[in-house]
Amino acid sequence: MTIKELAKIAGLNHSTVSRSLNDSPLISDETKQRVLKLAEEYNFELNASARGMRTKKTGTIGVIFPVIRDRYRDMQYLGSLMNTLRYTIEEEQYDSIITMPVNPKTGKSNIRKLIQQHKVDGLLLVIKELDKEDQDILGESGIPFVSLHFKWQGGYQEDTNYVYPDNFRGGYLAAECLLKAGCRNLITLTEPGGLYEFEERSRGYLAAQTERGLTAGSEQIFYGETGFDFGYNFIMEHQSMLNSIDGIFAQADMNAIGVIEALKELDIRVSEDIAVVGYDDIDIDYFFKPRLTTIHQPREQYTEIACRKLIEMIDSKEQTEIIQKVIEPDLLIRESCVI
Amino acid sequence: MTIKELAKIAGLNHSTVSRSLNDSPLISDETKQRVLKLAEEYNFELNASARGMRTKKTGTIGVIFPVIRDRYRDMQYLGSLMNTLRYTIEEEQYDSIITMPVNPKTGKSNIRKLIQQHKVDGLLLVIKELDKEDQDILGESGIPFVSLHFKWQGGYQEDTNYVYPDNFRGGYLAAECLLKAGCRNLITLTEPGGLYEFEERSRGYLAAQTERGLTAGSEQIFYGETGFDFGYNFIMEHQSMLNSIDGIFAQADMNAIGVIEALKELDIRVSEDIAVVGYDDIDIDYFFKPRLTTIHQPREQYTEIACRKLIEMIDSKEQTEIIQKVIEPDLLIRESCVI
DNA sequence: CCTCTCCATGCAAACGTGTGCATTATCAGT
DNA sequence: ACTGATAATGCACACGTTTGCATGGAGAGG
User: Fold this and answer.
1) Could B75 and A283 be called an inter-chain contact, meaning their C-beta atoms sit closer than 8 Å?
2) Per-residue pLDDT at A200 exceeds 90
């Protein structure tokens, strides 16, 4: 059923029906109501393709999301982030196409595809980095987009909207918590590869110590994949070190849980002998004991901010105010490190 | 950039360009190559809306997914199911719009919306049940769809394609494993509400016992929300019962993990004193000890089958063979119940 | 009663593709 | 050289909307 058929039923021209459905002020309330009622009755919906061709609007938002690897923090943390995003977008009456930066089979950029095919009205970028090519396409196309969660690495584009958490502050809070709990010999477990997210956490972690007059340096930082295994294996393989430390900042909860499980197996008291602070506040923390003290990633805040901003950009024709926010994370004191 | 502009650059009519891009046999290889090269050079992509209007094809697949509740099995199991689906669809060069059956804000059917607005070429349904209204729309529209994971409840439509796991068999395997491990007094923890999925597991669980001449009945079945808490609390609140049972079939891994954690706290030896078998085989099983013996949901198989089938239906113009499969799950013997 | 406004509706073009049909070019067979 | 077949390309319309403009009708003011 098309708008013309509906118009025939209503005894109106299809343009009048179109305007009615789009709540145009040109149409009298009376006919507007009549059209809406008929549309309801016949279960009529406007064809999205035709609409999109005319209006250049698709009613869908593209979400570029990293590939989620099982067994790492990704599934737990990014999975919940993705759900939050989906629900927020749904609430705003948009559909979402969630995809990864590059199609694994063709090796082609999904960002480019979504933009050039005009499949989406805007993009939410949840990615660590962005090719030069993709940056160019974003810039040239002028499509609205907001970067969230990861620090925006887009280079030259200064008017980009982004919102991400303050990882320095998170690292600082974690170390501070350990210090306040009485720890004096800290180590941290983090991800290698110079990832901004983790480097910042380490910087904050060091800063909290030096600020208090403690010596702190790279010899306290250990690198591995931020999953359960690295945490568990690290403890098992560094048992001789455990006498000389009293606090561990594991820069991902998944990691911290592995650490704690290993400590438990070695009959080392978590919190009393060695305090542990994690990062992320993932749901499954709930299942492990002692309950993990951790840094809560303010995901509700930045997904909310990013979605609303993107939709504002899509809806308003003029340039909107640029938002570039860095959100403070919170310390959640539970059982693995108590002040 | 439109196809006409590209045609002008190529010195051709836009129809020739169109045919070239769609690899029509009408066009000589020479010009075809030339056009493809130009398209590459100018980063040209066909406009999806215009294309969709003409061809009635959108290149995107709709996935109707239940709302994922945190802290229950949903996040773990359905989350990984969703990822598997996304990747399979991506491999086939389709985009996916993942959404829930009903928009929580408007209360309107998303199935209807996606179909009537012609936003998708086909649907993957991962839902327990389907309104009469949605059933009608699926039937009338003739849109290709495949139901997966949940038993198809669509009522009258007998030619529906579906694929779901054999829950009876899963329940049977779980109980059989407990019995083979020497258990004679079993209970099961399951979800209330007469959900087919769980009822079948209970039926299989009972059948495995009666087949071996054991008396088994509803007094062995306990109901609660299949999360960690129900498992944990159930054990804590039924300590007096624990002497008289030696095997527990928890019908969701999340649930089984709660049970095991409680048993550990009560210093009851898992496997030796009370054996535990779960259901799902979720990723986080890996983090808990003793390692959980469980039923593996054959998700890789049925997502693969469902996706390929749906795309076959979308691509072929004629009626395709109907598939209605029930997939056998596997028993994974780990540590919480060993034969 | 006539003209001028204003309000509501109709008309027709346009968006970017795909495709049936017409047209032109090429080539083989006589 | 002419005809006919075949291959390659161009032309024009259609898909279902939205929207600028034209049109018609009602009411107000003179």
Assistant:
1) yes
2) yes
